[in-house]
Write a structure and sequence with these properties.
heterotrimer; A mainly alpha; B mainly alpha; C mainly alpha; B: Helix Hairpins; C: mainly alpha; two-stranded antiparallel sheet; 19 helices; globular
Chain lengths: 158, 119, 523
């Protein structure tokens, strides 16, 4: 598909960073407020889809090769599974939350009951949120990009 | 009676979705029917987790006077619904890309005209 | 602890995690070299096969393995996702891993000229991980998630040859029917969760009463899972999907279909085990009736086909009827101890043994059909002929598959079908007569195929058809040798592997007591 007019391109240039920051906020605070990996990733992916609609699929496909998207998606998935396997390395089972209680990265244990939110809690969960968030952003954007590019050319790739 | 409205909505959504899949000939309308059934089942999952007069199950800055955990809604159905929505997105993307391929081969989206050949 | 104990303790999770990790590493590995990627995939599946055999050898000795993700031990109340491996799950994972390993070895040469191969291997590893997850899990919603993973991956693989319109249409039909079935399974799981506030199979089985909503959930679960397994009258997707997919994809698809069959048995025997014989018309008789209709219709439709792979697909439908017949006959006598010892146990042994035999036999036939397609680029039986001169090894493998699938000694099909004939005759003679009749008709169908494809005068257009490459022959040889070994020593296999699986299905109390130690009741 071809791009849209100059006004649309300018406005989408302005709003794309706002959408991205909002989506990253939802991903990062997944263990405190409603949200997390998939929800924040869907928000950022719709921002990227807005850029795709504004600039046209041919221009976007020229800027971003599909191979790099596939590589980034695999990296997100591998980080998730490695974080699960690291529970094995610390002597316990898969998916064990080995960062809670230690003072390494996200290790503070909050008091039970109604407290104020502290982002430095949760253990492995915020890291897994980031991995899932990257995978969802790249995955959903790749789906929309390939479909838009495939319906613009007469004979597409496989 | 008013607390049964979500369940009536679930039944209506599933029946309309089944009607669209069975009686419509356009492939896109069949995909929309599947999306309707999936929305109905997700609504059913969410509705199961409701307690009367409860708040959201988040510990941060609760309103004063809510008992924990009896004053909060169930959090498990929310996780189940989220997983189901993600699976629905993946299946929808796959079905639509297959429809693009079918249209490029057969030139039509009528379900009675594609798939000839053997029985 | 040494490495073997470590692997054994974590094996239920490793069996699912290693193909999953391999699936996501494959796009990175395939940037180096094509051969490195093939070797990486075969090594991943080889490692999974060795862990499966390690776990199976421990489970068949009598221990049930449980694995709670993310916790230290099994403390009540159960809030973790549990994997629970008893003998029936171990039996199914053995079948799945043999099929997956053979498929990847076969597809080294078969799929080589196509593009997009890194996605192909990623999807095969994902489908294998989903299939293992379905067989090992002890949690209903986890079963649904793995079922959907397997369906999505297999749909993308069925439509792999996107330059042919028919393959894409088969994939679309498969995903629509599969998604509707999976949504009904989710609806039934939500019904059960809403009543009992539990998703774990053992916890649900210990508190279930057979109320009206439970009956609706049972009907929805059996109907949707039987549709995924290919039971008539819901079998419409199976001939198209099996017949138009590439041959190595079909053989893993057999494993995924039988994982849904395992789901039916797990729901009927373990989840509803305490209450299933309270129904007036026993569920077992419904399974027996569905099995009979499936057998008859599968064979009848196979007689009139002219496409090679579609014919084998219809015979696969007929074979699934045998499994339903055997296990359904066992379900009718579940509460009745002396009739169970007399006929139910041997009927279920026949049905469960037939799961493994059918996977191997029909898998070998599909691999032979794929080899014929690779050599001649023809799929229609009207245009083939006289191939026995050029492809000697393939002909021998086809003869082995023909004898096995129609129940002739000394192949393994004879052992399992004889068990089914003997035990169902005592239940009702008509069942046994119908089963023997369909076996004879299957023999007729495949003798016709053998005559028209391999015997006959040599056609001039097939003059320079060579034998298929070595990797495909090695894959077919592995399955053929397992078939012959199982046929020569059936007593060994039945007493060591099938009997523990059948006892694990019948005595559902052990399964529940592993999670809830204070459960009384159950056999």
């Amino acid at each position: 598909m071809s791009g849209m007019s100059k006004i649309v391109k300018t406005i989408s240039n302005i709003t794309f960073p706002l959408i991205t920051i909002y989506g990253l906020y939802i991903i990062a605070h997944g263990h405190l407020t409603p949200g997390g990996g998939f929800q924040g990733g869907a928000v950022v992916a719709s921002g990227c889809a807005m850029i795709l609609v504004a600039y046209g699929s041919v221009w976007t496909m020229g800027k971003i090769k599909e191979k790099n998207l596939s590589l980034l998606e695999s990296t997100g998935a591998i980080c998730f599974i490695l974080l699960a396997i690291l529970g094995l390395g610390f002597g316990t089972v898969f998916f064990n939350n080995f960062l809670v209680g230690s003072n390494f990265l996200f290790g503070i244990v909050p008091a039970t009951g109604s407290t104020l939110a502290n982002i430095n809690t949760g253990g492995v969960i915020p890291l897994m949120n980031f991995a899932v968030g990257i995978k969802v952003i790249v995955g959903l954007f790749a789906i929309v990009l390939v479909m838009a590019y495939a319906s613009s050319t007469k004979e597409g790739k496989k | 009676m008013i607390f049964n409205i979500p369940f009536i909505a679930v039944a209506a959504l599933i029946l309309i979705g089944l009607y669209a899949i069975i009686f419509r000939r356009n492939l896109i309308k069949m995909v929309i029917g599947i999306t309707l059934i999936e929305s109905g089942v997700n609504l059913f999952l969410i509705t199961l987790g409701y307690r009367e007069g409860s708040v959201a199950p988040i510990f941060t800055s609760l309103p004063t006077g809510t008992t924990v955990p009896e004053g909060m809604a169930f959090p498990v159905p929310q996780a189940l619904t989220l997983t189901s929505i993600v699976i629905g997105v993946a299946v929808l993307a796959l079905m639509l890309s297959l429809i693009i391929h079918i249209y490029r081969h057969y030139g039509t989206l009528d379900v009675r005209k594609i798939g000839g050949g053997e029985e | 602890m040494n490495i073997v104990d470590f692997l054994l303790q974590h094996s239920p999770a490793l069996i699912v995690a290693i193909p999953l990790l391999g699936a996501f590493l494959t796009p990175l590995v395939s940037r180096l070299n094509d051969k490195a990627r093939n070797i990486f995939v075969i090594l991943t599946l080889g490692l999974t096969t060795s862990i499966v055999f390690l776990l199976a050898s421990d489970v068949f000795a009598g221990n049930i393995h449980t694995y709670a993700f993310g916790s230290q031990d099994l403390a009540l109340p159960i809030v973790r996702i549990l994997f629970e491996v008893d003998a029936m799950s171990a039996f199914m994972t053995i079948i799945g891993t043999i099929l997956a390993l053979v498929s990847v070895i076969y597809s080294w040469a078969f799929i080589k000229e196509n593009t997009g191969l890194d996605k192909y291997y990623t999807l095969i590893l994902l489908m294998t991980a989903g299939m293992f997850g379905m067989m090992l899990t002890g949690d209903m919603f986890n079963f649904f998630v793995f079922l959907e993973i397997t369906s999505i991956a297999s749909c993308a693989l069925i439509a792999f040859w996107t330059n042919k319109g028919k393959a894409v249409e088969a994939g679309f039909k498969y995903i629509v029917i599969s998604t509707i079935g999976a949504l009904f399974i989710l609806f039934a799981i939500a019904l059960l969760y809403g009543q009992y506030n539990a998703l774990n199979i053992a916890t649900l089985a210990s508190v279930i009463q057979f109320s009206f909503l439970d009956k609706i959930a049972l009907v929805l679960l059996i109907a949707a899972l039987a549709m995924k397994a290919g039971i008539v009258p819901m079998h419409m997707w199976l001939p198209d999907a099996y017949g138009r997919a590439p041959a190595p994809v079909t053989i893993i698809l057999i494993g995924a279909t039988q994982a849904s069959l395992y789901g039916v048995f797990r729901v009927c025997f373990t989840l509803y085990g305490n209450t299933i014989n309270l129904t007036p018309v026993s569920i077992g008789w419904i399974l027996v009736l569905l099995g009979l209709i499936t057998m008859l219709l599968g064979v009848a439709m196979a007689l009139i086909q002219s496409d090679f792979k579609r014919l084998i697909a219809f015979s696969a439908v007929a074979e699934i009827g045998y499994m339903f017949l055997g296990v359904g006959a066992g379900l009718t006598v579940l509460g009745n101890t002396e009739m169970m010892a007399a006929i139910g146990s041997s009927a279920m042994s026949g049905g469960v043994f037939h799961i493994m035999n059918d996977a191997l036999d029909v898998g070998l036939l599909f691999l032979v059909a794929g080899a014929v397609y690779y050599a001649t680029r023809e799929t229609s039986l009207d245009k083939l002929g006289g191939l026995a001169r050029n492809m000697k090894y393939t002909t021998v493998f086809f003869i082995i598959g023909l004898l096995a699938v129609s129940g002739m000694p000394p192949m393994n099909g004879f052992a399992s079908k004889l068990l089914i004939y003997e035990s169902t005759f005592q239940l009702n003679p008509i069942l046994s007569i119908v089963a023997i009749l369909s076996s004879i008709m299957l023999l007729a169908v495949f003798v016709k195929v053998f005559h028209s494809a391999f015997l006959g005068p040599a056609l001039p257009k097939f003059k320079d058809v060579k034998e298929v490459p070595k990797s495909m022959l090695i894959a077919m040889g592995i399955i053929a040798s397992i078939i012959i070994v199982f046929g020569l020593f059936p007593e060994l296999i039945v007493s060591n592997i099938v009997e523990p699986a059948v006892n694990a299905l019948i005595s559902y109390g052990d399964y529940i007591r592993e999670v809830i130690p204070t459960f009384t009741g159950g056999m």
